[in-house]
Design a protein that fits this description.
The complex is a heterodimer of chains A (291) and B (526). Chain A is mainly alpha-helical and 291 residues long. Chain A is 70% helix and 2% strand. Chain A has helices at 15-34, 40-67, 73-114, 157-181, 184-214, 223-255, 265-290, and strands at 135-137, 148-150. Chain B has one domain (30-509): Cytochrome c oxidase-like, subunit I domain (Cytochrome C Oxidase, Chain A). Classes of the chains: A mainly alpha (291), B mainly alpha (526). At the A-B interface, α1, α2, α3 and α6 of A face α1, α2, α5, α6 and α7 of B.
Chain lengths: 291, 526
């Protein structure tokens, strides 16, 4: 460890420009694809590949610098603050979608209900797919005919998923205690359990989506209910996927002998992220499934 | 451990690499600041050119130069480019150059991320501009990208949405960098309440950026899924509501206007004490006023949509909350004027700009107060009065503060004094043409001329004629601005370390031009 006056400023790096080019190709390809041009998905694939190459390269550089002892305590603080503010920005991203949910449930749908001239006979109330959308049946009902949809009840799979994620936060904390004590065997065990629970959660979530589409008539296009349900749970699922991947990479690094009792911020960042994802799920469980 | 890391560390104390790749791969805050500022200037000219197309069409009544759809694309892209391409990157450029110099840090805290934040921007704007060449053209919905208007339109809208995602990444990473730099990299003794006000305004701006850019990303994501994936966020037939878009957008959009103006407040809070040869009056109240404005910015958004049909209680709340902003802003104006009071003032170009900003921004602030009054807003909404209002706060607030900032710090950046005579010419021409362009628009708006329409009633002809003449003059004057900068970069009178007689702060303790690496050993601040 070097003193605070020796702040490591890395020399020139080509990873940022690589990231930009990957992002640009991905975005351009996506726009092309969404407008029904055949080349789009191939362009997207190239962009995605560049981004994955960049992630390995950029993080690889940071890891070798970290293991090489270039990072003083002050650099470590920069990383910590940076990660905390990044998570803060993620909170606000979810806030936009939660805000949309609250607005339609508490204001837009009741107003639509009252607007008798526009949509005579529409009865608001939640869940709804809007005046022109399919009618809602009770939760967990298999829907056979068109024009109806059913929601996913809170106390089936979603409750189990809640238990799984909460448990994974606990096992993640056990891994943290093991880190502090330097018990590598325990770290590997509890991290592996956490990753496995993350995967299990994702499996159940995929299963739930499959049921929704095939048996419940609930899709992304099922009015405002389908839109808020799939966008909120979908972005959450994406974050669980990312969190699981990060924890998995931390696990591989532990197996390779990285980290010390004092210096394991990569794990701590992953754990913060994991707890954040867990908290978002609790809000989802309450506002999307239960209420 | 790794030999590459070893190699990096060895190079660290050398000067910059040579050639084009220096700029592409640099991690140096001064290089990146320079790139931001040049990018901002280029975008300023591009966006300005689009404004001139708009003004040329509006020169006389009737449709003569461009078809209405292209006119809509020009108003939309002018705003998107000026907001996200000129003002915001310009302010980040100032932050990159000045924040480490002002707090005695060796560089920004996360230098590679800093490079990434910059290089996203040229690519993101290529994406938006490329829309012009596709069938259907670029976005034509106004910069607010209101649904359901954006649910129509071609690939240009999708390209804009993805570009906004990219700019969001850029802004968030840039803002994180500023916050971490300020909270983690200050020189010993540089306590928070000793920081120059520019640094304070930027920390608070960075907080706003991190808080609202993700919300904007969420809003345009909903537009994207409504366009292509069958969601019904903004479609009442599916239970959604187009007004929902406006709420989410303005939850971002209102803090966004403070993101553009707070660093401008910071710049003139540096300039005025220097040329008044006095300490800034009421430093602490300035800090708290800035924080107060930032807080209020989160709870006033719906004043942009008074005519959309909100409940009366909502209208009243948003009206009074908005008027509250006049209090901390008034504190700032009072403090700037009090700083000048009985100061030994001189009127170099930066000071002229700072005084003009105080004066002209106040006009914009007062028209903002008029717009905040709900019943009056029903008349003013979507008229040229609004256009006049936000150009008084954005051009004569943000842009002119940046021009003042450029003249103020250019000697430190280039090592040469700019041409003072040309600088004064540029200032006076800009100020006069700006007022010729935008002051008549107040009258147009009060008389009922709607904005974003390429044709107008004959009764509006004279003021539009004046406005267009002013705009052409304003545009041409900026070529002089570029020439002055070019001249100072190439040569001129050598700048001293202190540059300005009354200047205080760490940036005036390093040589001019500032060496490639500064404060590698932190200075001690008493």
């Amino acid at each position: 460890m070097s003193g605070p006056s020796d702040y490591y400023v890395p020399h020139s790096s080509h990873w940022p420009i690589t990231a930009t080019i990957g992002l640009f190709i991905l975005a351009f390809g996506a726009a092309i694809m969404l407008n029904d041009m055949a080349a789009g998905k191939w362009i997207m694939l190239v962009g995605g590949a560049v981004l994955i190459y960049m992630l390995f390269g950029w993080f690889g550089t940071v890891i070798s610098e970290s293991e090489g002892g270039y990072y003083s305590g002050q650099v470590d603080t920069s990383f910590r603050m940076g990660m905390a503010w990044f998570i803060f920005s993620e909170v606000l991203f979810f806030a936009a979608f939660f805000g949309a949910l609250f607005y339609v449930r508490k204001l837009a749908v009741p107003w639509l209900d009252e607007a008798e001239i526009l949509w005579p006979g529409y009865n608001g109330g939640w869940p709804t797919a809007g005046p022109a959308g399919p009618q809602v049946l009770g939760p967990d009902t298999h829907v056979e005919q068109a024009g109806f949809f059913s929601t996913i009840g809170a106390w089936g799979l979603p409750m189990w998923n809640t238990i799984i994620l909460l448990t994974s936060s606990v096992t993640c904390t056990f891994a943290h205690w093991a880190f502090v004590k330097g018990q590598r065997g325990r770290i590997v065990f509890w991290l592996a359990v956490t990753v496995a629970l993350g995967c299990l959660f994702l499996y159940f979530q995929a299963f739930e989506y499959h049921e929704a589409y095939t048996a419940y008539g609930l899709t992304l296009g099922t009015g405002i209910y389908g839109a808020t349900f799939f966008m909120l749970t979908g972005f959450h699922g994406l974050h669980v996927t990312i969190g699981t991947l990060i924890l998995f990479i931390v696990l591989l690094r532990v197996i390779r002998g990285h980290f010390t009792e004092q210096n394991h911020f990569a794990f701590e960042a992953a754990a913060w992220y994991w707890h954040f994802v867990d908290t978002v799920w609790l809000l989802l469980f309450v506002f999307v499934y239960v209420l | 451990m790794s030999s590459t890391a070893e190699h990096h560390h060895d190079d660290h104390h050398h000067g910059p690499a040579k050639g084009f790749m220096r700029w592409v791969t640099t991690t140096n805050h001064k290089d990146i600041g320079t790139m931001y500022l040049i990018f901002s200037l280029v975008m300023f000219m591009v966006g300005g050119f689009m404004a001139l197309i708009v003004r040329a069409e509006l020169f006389v009544p009737g449709l003569q130069l461009v078809d209405p759809h292209f006119f809509n694309q020009m108003t939309t892209m002018h705003a998107l480019i000026m907001v996200f391409g000129a003002i915001m990157p310009g302010m980040v450029g100032f932050a990159n150059w000045q924040v480490p110099l002002m707090i005695g840090a060796p560089d920004m805290a996360l230098p590679r991320l800093n490079n990434w934040s910059f290089w996203i921007l040229p690519f993101a704007f290529s994406l938006i501009l490329s829309g012009l060449f596709f069938f259907g053209g670029g976005p034509a919905s106004g910069w607010t990208l209101y649904a359901p208007l954006t649910l129509q339109g071609g690939i240009g809208v999708d390209l804009t949405i993805f570009a906004i995602h990219m700019m969001g990444i850029s802004s968030i990473m840039g803002a994180i960098n500023v916050i971490v730099t300020v909270f983690n990299m200050r020189a010993p003794g540089m306590t928070l309440m000793k920081m120059p006000l520019f640094v304070w305004t930027w920390v608070i701006t960075a907080f706003l950026l991190i808080a609202v850019m993700p919300v904007f990303a969420g809003a345009v994501t909903m537009v994207l899924t409504d366009r292509h994936f069958g969601t019904a966020f903004f479609d009442p037939a599916g239970g959604g509501d187009p007004v929902l878009y406006q709420h989410i957008f303005w939850f971002f959009g209102h803090p966004e206007v403070y993101i553009m103006i707070l660093p401008a407040f910071g710049i003139i809070s540096q300039i005025i004490p220097t040329f008044s040869r006095k300490k800034l009056f009421g430093y602490e109240s300035m800090v708290f006023a800035t924080a107060g404005i930032a807080f209020l910015s989160f709870i006033v958004w719906a004043h942009h949509m008074f005519t959309v049909g909100m409940p009366l209680a909502g209208e009243l709340y948003f009206m009074y909350a908005t008027m509250l902003i006049a209090v901390p802003t008034g504190v700032k104006i009072f403090n700037w004027v009090s700083t000048m009071w009985r100061g030994s003032m001189t009127f170099e170009t930066p000071m002229l700009y700072a005084i003009a900003v105080v004066f002209l921004f106040t006009i914009g602030g007062l028209s903002g107060l008029m717009l905040a009054i709900v019943p009056a807003d029903f008349q003013y909404h979507d008229t040229y009065f609004v256009v006049a209002h936000f150009h008084y706060v954005l051009f004569s607030g943000a842009i002119m503060a940046m021009m003042g900032g450029v003249f103020y710090w250019l000697p430190k950046w280039t090592g040469h004094m700019y041409d003072e005579r040309l600088g004064k010419w540029q200032f006076w021409l800009t100020t006069i043409f700006f007022n010729i362009t935008f002051f008549p628009q107040h009258f147009l708006g009060l008389a009922g001329m709607p904005r974003r329409i390429p044709d107008y009633n004959l009764q509006f002809a004279e003021f539009n004629f004046m406005s267009s003449v002013g705009a052409m003059g304003l545009g041409i004057t900026q070529l002089l601005f570029i020439y002055i900068i070019y001249k100072a970069v190439k040569g001129g009178e050598k700048a001293t370390t202190e540059v300005w007689e009354g200047a205080e702060g760490l940036e005036w303790t390093v040589p001019s031009p500032a060496p490639y690496h500064t404060f590698e050993t932190p200075p001690v601040v008493k």
